[in-house]
């Protein structure tokens, strides 16, 4: 079963696999990030802008939202010959719940200049399996396969993948499939027990220096909690070929109970 089913030109229904971790009657935002990326990718192709490639994805979470039908939109807010800024949005239960602003840039051959990659992490075959449902409930967390080495609270290397398609009966590019897993960075190398401390993220920004291959997503993550209720999750992103980008999430940290 996929995470979403298309019901119209711009509408989608979530399936049980999108169930949230902080509350199981709400949606986990991770699949929605994948859906937003899929909208930008399909719009780019439909407009004949195949020469453009996403180099930055910035997602904002406007609030929690239920397992209910979703409406979507996508439009170019800064057109250009070599650079574009595209915005996609999802509404659910009558309000906007998540947005994506994606910078797209014309691809070019810079292989002779490539360098400066962060260090690689051990691959999924070299990383022990871990059951994420020991920390988190919900349909989305139950739908993923995880490998994890936790060096200390808030510091770990993780590999995640899913066998579930993002959208039923649609071709989804590797970038969108990968984007549907990015939000897991904040929950797989936790600094504090999520039953005792809440640390939801308000946003997620990914900078890409190459396109991901899809399949396994590697997360080399450090979680920092500050002294005044804020935190940051910082991650170097990997696929089977090595690092491909960096990610940051702003956290609101609140003790529970």
UniProtKB/TrEMBL annotation:
Q: Which Pfam families match?
A: 4HBT_3, 4HBT_3C
Domain Acyl-CoA thioesterase-like C-terminal per the UniProt entry, residue ranges: 124-253
Q: Where is this region: Disordered?
A: 1-21
Matches recorded under SUPFAM superfamilies: Thioesterase/thiol ester dehydrase-isomerase
User: Domain Acyl-CoA thioesterase-like N-terminal HotDog, which positions?
Assistant: 21-104
This chain's protein is named Thioesterase family protein
Species for this entry: Isoptericola chiayiensis
